[in-house]
Design brief:
Layout lengths: L4 H22 L8 E8 L2 E8 L30 H8 L1 E8 L2 E9 L8
Antiparallel strand pairs: 1-2, 2-4, 3-4
Keywords: Kinase, Serine/threonine-protein kinase, Transferase
GO molecular function, one term: protein serine/threonine kinase activity
Pfam family, one: HATPase_c_2
Length: about 120
């Protein structure tokens, strides 16, 4: 099965949010670090594992998705805080663990969910 444009767009969005969080939060104590990305295809899904040697997530657990009231005026919306909601909504099998001095985030993106032709 090929991947349509919507599936690619969703994968790009999720990866951008995840990697932005790593750069913005995991490396705040030193400004640099190592990020490893591993990806593999399994049926209609793209599975990803992202590892970094940055600071652990608060409480060493996956952040909950924040939900915002989107019915307010645009200027009343918060500037940030949407990332984990996007990640939770567009992935499945989302897990986080701290392995020694490394963070490991794994998830899958099921392209069948975004395939407009099915």
């Amino acid at each position: 099965m090929g991947v349509d444009r919507d599936g690619c767009d969703f994968a790009e969005l999720v990866l951008a949010e995840v990697l932005n969080n790593v750069v913005e939060h995991a490396f705040t104590d030193r400004g640099h670090g190592i990020i490893e990305l591993e990806a593999w295809r399994a049926g209609n899904a793209l599975s990803l594992r992202i590892r970094d040697d940055g600071m652990p997530m608060p409480g060493e657990r996956l952040p909950a998705a924040q939900r915002h009231d989107l019915t307010v005026e645009t200027h009343e919306l918060p500037e940030g805080g949407f990332g984990w909601g996007i990640i939770h909504d567009l992935t499945r099998d989302l897990t986080y663990r701290r392995d020694g001095a490394r963070n490991e985030l794994t998830f899958a993106i099921d392209f069948a969910e975004f395939d407009a032709s099915t």
